[in-house]
Specification:
There is one protein chain. The chain has 400 residues and is α+β, with helices and mostly antiparallel strands. The chain folds into 2 domains: 269 residues, L-amino peptidase D-ALA esterase/amidase (4-Layer Sandwich); 119 residues, ArgJ beta chain, C-terminal domain (Ubiquitin-like (UB roll), Roll). It is built from 11 helices and 15 strands. Strands 1, 2, 3, 4, 5, 6, 7, 8 and 9 form a 9-stranded mixed sheet that branches. Strands 13-12-11-14-10-15 form a 6-stranded mixed sheet. Strand 12 and strand 13 form a beta hairpin. The longest helix is centred in the middle third of the chain and has 22 residues. The protein is globular.
């Protein structure tokens, strides 16, 4: 099996057209409406936020994702969240606008929104934007679509891989947005992934559930799970290759899907609001996945840990404190912690270490941290970031 990184995102996949346009939600003239379209019906699966305040577009998509899918419409700048019955009507109306323009059924349209919470969608501008987006659809429009779903993101986020295996060739490609309000629980901010393999909806859902746990659900920027979080995975079948779970190609497909999701998840953290450091936290020797994930989340979400990394201070005491209150079951007397190759604790106790060497590790853009529990065989790698002055500045006037 050979897997190669491919230029482009969603439109690197056969059977996917895309567009990104400005419809007037954003005041600065930037693109704010993306449309993804499959000329032939695709199958879709999704994972969605566990936040109890679920935005109306997400509720519509949860219904429609069970049906054959032709289009995904995403607007940025307005989350259409906490907008009550009118918000749900607007989300449904958005699907109807797309369906009418494309000549498909409203149930074949998935809807997603991101931006400010508690503001109604400007449906007159949405209608004009849908017309413009449909007219702009192309098989090279992936980057425009990726730009159109950005809010506080500073760069578009795309990833794609082509796999050659056993005489078969297929592609998995996707795009995502996210910079703040990132602490996924079933999903992350927004991600849209396609493959040209022919896979059942049940197979897509199983693969997505497994891969999300090892990618999007292991990143955090600020500990906040959004009202609009979703990850969608669609199969166009345009390669003509049908794959089932027991087939030899299945493992290759899941591997490519993981690489795309891992790329997108990492780019979200790397582009986190005000980020100056990415923390690559490996937890090994855990008794199971949940223990490792719980510990990683506690450490990476700790404001004291995050500010220590921003200040390049090797304050390992903040790490063990976060571990101690995480709720995870482990033996403190077995814990070793390393900052890069600098060991700072041994069997739960501090050791004398070279402060200058540790400082150099903390000055890196990506800071590797290892926590070894010596209590099992489970190992995960999670990603987080520091907390800077800029994060506070961005989020103190977000609505303006």
């Amino acid at each position: 099996m050979a897997m190669e990184k491919t230029a482009g995102g969603v439109t690197s996949v056969k059977g996917v057209d895309a567009a990104g346009v400005h419809c007037g939600i954003k005041k600065n003239g930037e693109k704010d409406l993306a449309l993804l379209y499959c000329p032939e019906p695709a199958r879709a699966a999704g994972v969605f936020t566990r936040n109890l305040f679920k935005a109306p577009p997400l509720l519509v998509t949860e219904q429609h994702v069970k049906m054959p899918t032709r289009a995904v419409i995403i607007n940025s700048g307005n989350a259409n969240a906490c907008t009550g019955e009118q918000g749900f009507k607007d989300a449904m109306a958005t699907a109807e606008l797309v369906a009418e323009k494309l000549g498909i059924a409203p149930a074949e349209v998935l809807v997603s929104s991101t931006g400010v919470i508690g503001v109604y969608l400007p449906m007159d501008r949405m209608a004009q934007g849908v017309d413009k987006a449909v007219d702009s659809l192309s098989n090279t429009g992936g980057n425009d679509a990726a730009c159109a779903i950005m809010t506080t993101d500073t760069v578009p986020k795309e990833s794609a891989y082509t796999v050659d295996s056993g005489g078969h060739s297929f592609t998995v490609g996707g795009m995502a947005k996210g910079s703040g309000m990132i602490c996924p629980d079933m999903a992350t901010m927004l991600a849209f992934i396609y493959t040209d393999l022919d896979i059942s909806r049940e197979g897509l859902q199983k693969a997505l559930n497994r891969v999300v746990e090892q990618s999007f659900n292991l990143v955090t920027v600020d500990g906040d799970t959004s009202t609009n979080d979703m990850v969608l995975l669609l199969s166009t079948g345009a390669s003509g290759i049908k794959v089932e779970e027991e087939a030899p190609l299945w493992a290759d497909f899941e591997n490519a899907l993981f690489q795309v999701c891992q790329d997108l998840a990492y780019r979200i953290v790397s582009d986190g609001e005000g980020v100056t450091k990415v923390i690559r936290l490996s937890v090994k020797g855990a008794s199971d996945y949940q223990v490792a994930r719980t510990l990683a989340r506690a450490v990476l979400n700790s404001c004291l840990v995050k500010t220590a990394f921003f200040g390049e201070d090797a304050n390992w005491g903040r790490i063990i404190t976060a571990m101690g209150y995480s709720g995870a079951e482990f033996n403190p007397s077995k814990v070793d912690i390393f900052l890069g190759d600098v060991q700072v604790t041994d069997q739960g106790a501090g050791v004398v270490f070279d402060e200058d060497k540790a400082k150099k590790v903390l000055q890196q853009r990506e800071v590797p941290v290892l926590i070894d529990l010596h209590s099992g065989s489970q190992e995960i790698t999670a990603f987080g970031c520091d907390l800077s002055y800029e994060y506070v500045t961005i989020n103190s006037d977000y609505r303006s």
